[in-house]
Amino acid sequence: MSLYQKFIRRPAVRRTTVLLLIGIVLWLMRGMISTILLTFIFAFLVTRLVSAVRRHLKVPTPLIVLLIYALVIAGLYYVVVNFVPLLANQSIKLVNQVYHFYESPSFDSNTIMAYINNYMKQFNLAEQVKSSISTLFNYLTSVGSMGVTFVLSLLLSFVFSIEVKSLKKFSALFLESPDFGWFFSDITYFAKKFINTFGVVIETQLFIAAVNTAITVLTLAIMKMPNLPSLGLMVFVFSLVPVAGVIISCIPLTMVAFSVGGIKYVVYILVMIVLIHTLETYVLNPKFMASRTQLPMFFTFIVLLISERLFGVWGLIVGIPIFTFFLDILGVKKIPTPKSITHSN
């Protein structure tokens, strides 16, 4: 028996080698990791939704996919048309208020503000402003790049969802390869286990996002903030990013709050964000992630902290799936398959 045949007949060694090769390929493609993950998330959610609909209605899959993406595009259009102009107007109003306050006679006659102004002159404000403008430009560039990534991922996931049946048939041909069928079989083995663990985390994060959105919209309604549907949709989208999403949504919310109720409303928003962030970080995320993945809350919390340090925001999304994935393939703890995934297969 040749060395190659001995290698194929040892599943543990073979699968470890395949897993290392997958890791190397992903590392080489790290510049495209945002596109890969977003495409995977969109395709995963859409295919699960299609399976849920088809359990009750015998509607052709392409028609369901078209309706889903039509609703997504309509929702994005609604946000852009309603929320972006609102945010732009509030930003202009905020700048004008600061400018008028600075130019008003009360500013010059205020001894405290005069002292602060003289103190600030000790710093090189021109360089600070230039640095801030450069940072803002880089931020806007990254936002534009992320927008392109989002659109590309949405398009790729749409094509995948439309052709999911033909893709499955085509992919099955690789398993029939006489020489390398074992290789693609091992890739399929790892893919199914990762989809299982990722499905658990995605379903949990959707629930957490719904809780965050409900609390935020209720608070905004009490404060009589304008355009609640647009603000609520924005908060829900940001809340899909664990922990960090709540903080990101703080920026536009505080700008709108300042234009509505001044500094007092900004303080209210900041207090609300801190409370929701604390609730998500120390209660919702560890509690529900632990219950759905059947992991101790302490381990769940530690994994979130470490993965955020290693991979940034994406680490908060993929950290738990990767950890549970390795627990599963190492035979330490099998992660149960959610019902939604079981029915869709």
Automatic annotation (TrEMBL):
Pfam families referenced in this protein's UniProt entry, alphabetically: AI-2E_transport
Transmembrane segments: 12-29, 35-51, 63-84, 139-160, 200-223, 235-258, 265-285, 297-330
GO biological process: transmembrane transport
InterPro entries reported in the protein's UniProt record: AI-2E-like
Key words, A-Z: Membrane, Transmembrane, Transmembrane helix
Gene Ontology CC: one annotated term: membrane
Record's subcellular location: Membrane
Membrane topology: Multi-pass membrane protein
PANTHER family attached to this UniProt entry: TRANSMEMBRANE PROTEIN, TRANSPORT PROTEIN YDBI-RELATED
Family: Belongs to the autoinducer-2 exporter (AI-2E) (TC 2.A.86) family.
Stated name of the protein: Transport protein
The organism of origin for this protein: Lapidilactobacillus dextrinicus DSM 20335
Biological classification of the source: Bacteria, Bacillati, Bacillota, Bacilli, Lactobacillales
